[in-house]
Amino acid sequence: MEWADEVIRSRLCILVMIDVATRMPLAWVVSDQPKAEATLQLLRMATRDKTREKRIYGCEGEPMPAMTIGMIRNDNGTGLRNSEVKTALLGVGSAITDVRTHASADKPFVERMFGTTESMLLKLLHGYTGRKPGELPAYDANKAGVLDIDVLYEIITKFFIDEYPSLKHMGVGMGGRRPAEVYNEINKTRGIFKAVNEDLRRKHLGWKFKLKPNDEGVRVLSGLSYSSDAFQKAVDKWKGKVSVFIDPDNLNFATAVFPGDPELYRLDLQTTIFADLTVVEYLDLMASYRRENPETTKLYEDRIAKVRLERQELLQKIGVERRLPRSYVTFEEARTKAKALFASSQVVRTRVPLDTVAPGSLATASSGPGVLPIGDAEVIDLAPSNPAPETKEVQPSEKQRPKQKSKTTRKPIRLGRPDQEGEFS
Q1: If you ran DSSP here, which 8-state letter would residue 212 be given?
Q2: Pair (304, 332) in one structural domain
Q3: Quick one: which of 32, 130, 361, 399 has the fewest CB in 10 Å?
Q4: Each residue of 232-273: pLDDT tens digit?
C-alpha cells in the first residue's frame, strides 16, 4: 500500500468556515493533513482581521472582520472532533455542536457552499481529483497537479473575498440577496459579534512555549524577544518557567501566563524589524539573511581566517609572559626576568674600524680616521677619537705627497697619540 500512502500525502484538502447568518466566508485553509493543527489555524483566521490577505492578493471586496465565534457546528472529521480543538473553543467562550454522521441536513449551509465552490472553482483547477474515488477515470490528477500551494491559496482567497460574497444566494433567509449585502445590513441593524480578547485568543488558539525568563524577558523561536514592565516585576518573584503564547499570524505581541496566577501578561515585541510579520515571513526573512552568494561566503571566511591567523601570530610574538593574566608586566617581573636572562653573560663591545667615520657625519667631518685631505694640505690630522692599541706607518701616494723645495727626505707621519704631551706640528 505504499502507492496509496503517496497518493494520500499528495492530496490537498480545503477547510472552510462560514457565518450562517450572512453566508460570508470567515476562514479558509489549504492543508495536506486536515488534523487538529489545521483546524486551529482555521479558528485563528476566523477570529482575526483578514485585511492582510486582501492587501497581499489585491482583492477588491471587504472580508469579514475579527469576531468571536458564538456557536460552531462542525463536521465529524478527526481534525474537528478532538480534545485539542474542543478545549480551544471552550477557552474562547464558544459553544460546540457535533452533527450526526452521514447527515448532511444537519449542516446544509456549508454543504451548499461547498457545492457552489466545487462547481465554480475547484473543477476548473488543474489536479482536481473529484468528490469521490473513480469520479474522473480518464483523468490523471497527479500528473495534472501543477499548481503551487501559494498560487492555489491565492486563487481560493480571491474567490472567497471577491467572488463568493458577490453571488446571489437563494438559501433560507437570503431571498436572492448577496452575502456582502446581508452582512452590511446586519452590521447596521444588530451588529456582529465583538472580537475576542487578544490575550485570551492567543492563550487558547495560539502556539504555546515553556520558557525560562531572564532580565530581558523571554525569547521565542530563537530570535523573537518579548517583554513588558508588568511581566518583569512578576518575574522577580518567580524562579521557574512560564508559558508564553504567540499568534503565528501576528508577532507584534505575546501573552505570558504564570502557574497559579490568573492574570494574563501582554508582552511587546522588542525587535521592531519583525513587526507585522507572520511566523512564515519571519523564518523566510531569517533564511534570506543567512543565505548568501558562495563567492561572498568565501571572501568573508578568508578574511576571518586571515585575521585570526594574524592575531595568533601576534600573541606568539609578545615578549611578556604569555601565561600572565594581564596585558602588562610588573616591575618585579621585569627585574627578575632580566636577571635571569643576563646571568653568567659578558657584554662584548664592538671595535670600531680605524678607517670609518661616525654615522651621519660623512659629509661634515673635517678630520678623523678615514678622512683624507684634498689639495695642498701639508698636515694630515688622523688622530682617532678613541685610543688605538696599534700604530701604523702610512706612505702617502704620489698625488698626496706634498711638493718638496729641496731634495731632503721628509720623515714619515706617525699615526696615533704622541709619546709625550704636546701636539703634532
Answers
A1: -
A2: yes
A3: 399
A4: 999 888 888 999 999 999 999 999 999 988 899 999 999 888
CB atoms within 10 A of CB 225: 16
Sheet with 250-257: strands ordered across: 207-211, 242-247, 250-257, 265-269, 224-227, 218-220
Contacts by residues 86-92 (CB-CB < 8 Å, ≥ 24 positions apart): 87/204, 88/40, 88/43, 88/204, 88/205, 89/43, 91/200, 91/203, 91/204, 91/205, 92/47, 92/68, 92/196, 92/200, 92/201, 92/204, 92/205
Predicted model pTM: 0.66
CB 158 within 8 A of CB 150: no
The reply to whether 99 falls in a domain is yes
Contact 321, 341 (CB under 8 A): no
Whether 140 and 86 map to the same domain: the answer is yes
Report the alpha-carbon distance of residue 251 to residue 274 in Å, rounded. 7
Q: Which three cell numbers stand for residue 78?
A: 478527526
Instruction: For residue 30, report the phi and psi dihedrals to the nearest 5 degrees.
Output: -105, 125
CA distance 269 to 279: 13
Residue 311 sits in which domain range? 294-338
